[in-house]
C-alpha cells in the first residue's frame, strides 16, 4: 500500500521547472506546471537517462538525450523516440510541503 512521504518544499520547485529528489533509494521528478505539482520517475523509458536535466515544453517533460516527451499527469509518452509511459505518483501539497505517495 502506498504511503505519502514528504519530498520537498513547494518553493524548491518554482512554476515552470522540475527537479529530482531521492526518495527511498529512488529518484522522483517533481514537476511544477503553472502551479500544479506532478511526480514521476526520473528515468526516461527510452534510454534510462535522467529527465531532470531536460526541460518543460508546453507542459510536457522533454528528455535531454533524444527529445522524447512525456505527460507529467498521466506518464504517457507523447513524442518519439519515447514509446512507453513513465511511472507517475499521487501528489498532495500541504502548506509549503510536497508529499508523494510511494
Characterise this structure:
This protein has about 100 residues and is mostly beta strands. The chain has no helices and 11 strands. It has strands at about 5-10, 15-25, 25-35, 35-40, 55, 60, 70, 75-80, 90, 90-95, 95-100. A 4-stranded antiparallel β-sheet has the order 2-3-4-9, with no helix packed on it. It has a 4-stranded antiparallel β-sheet with strand order 5-6-7-8, with no helix packed on it. A 3-stranded antiparallel β-sheet has the order 1-11-10, with no helix packed on it. A hairpin with a 6-residue loop joins strand 7 and strand 8 (about 75-80). The model has no long low-confidence stretch (mean pLDDT about 95).
SSE arrangement:
Elements: E1 4-9, E2 17-23, E3 26-33, E4 36-41, E5 55-57, E6 60-62, E7 69-70, E8 77-79, E9 88-89, E10 91-94, E11 97-101
Antiparallel strand pairs: 1-11, 2-3, 3-4, 4-9, 5-6, 6-7, 7-8, 10-11
What count of helical segments does DSSP give? 0
Q: List the domain count as a whole number.
A: 1
What name goes with the CATH superfamily? Answer: Rieske [2Fe-2S] iron-sulphur domain
Distance between the termini: 8 Å
Structural class: mainly beta
Descriptive key words:
single chain, mainly beta, Rieske Iron-sulfur Protein, four-stranded antiparallel β-sheet
Question: What would a concise description of this structure say?
Answer:
With 102 residues, the chain is mainly β. Helices cover 0% and strands 48% of the residues.
Amino acid at each position: 500500500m502506498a504511503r505519502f512521504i514528504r519530498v520537498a518544499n513547494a518553493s524548491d520547485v518554482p512554476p515552470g521547472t522540475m527537479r529530482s529528489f531521492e526518495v527511498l533509494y529512488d529518484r522522483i521528478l517533481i514537476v511544477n506546471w503553472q502551479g500544479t505539482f506532478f511526480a514521476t520517475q526520473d528515468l526516461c523509458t527510452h534510454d534510462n537517462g535522467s529527465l531532470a536535466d531536460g526541460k518543460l515544453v508546453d507542459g510536457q517533460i522533454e528528455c535531454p538525450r533524444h527529445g522524447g516527451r512525456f505527460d507529467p499527469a498521466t506518464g504517457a509518452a507523447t513524442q518519439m523516440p519515447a514509446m512507453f509511459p513513465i511511472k507517475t505518483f499521487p501528489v498532495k501539497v500541504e502548506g509549503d510541503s510536497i508529499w508523494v505517495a510511494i
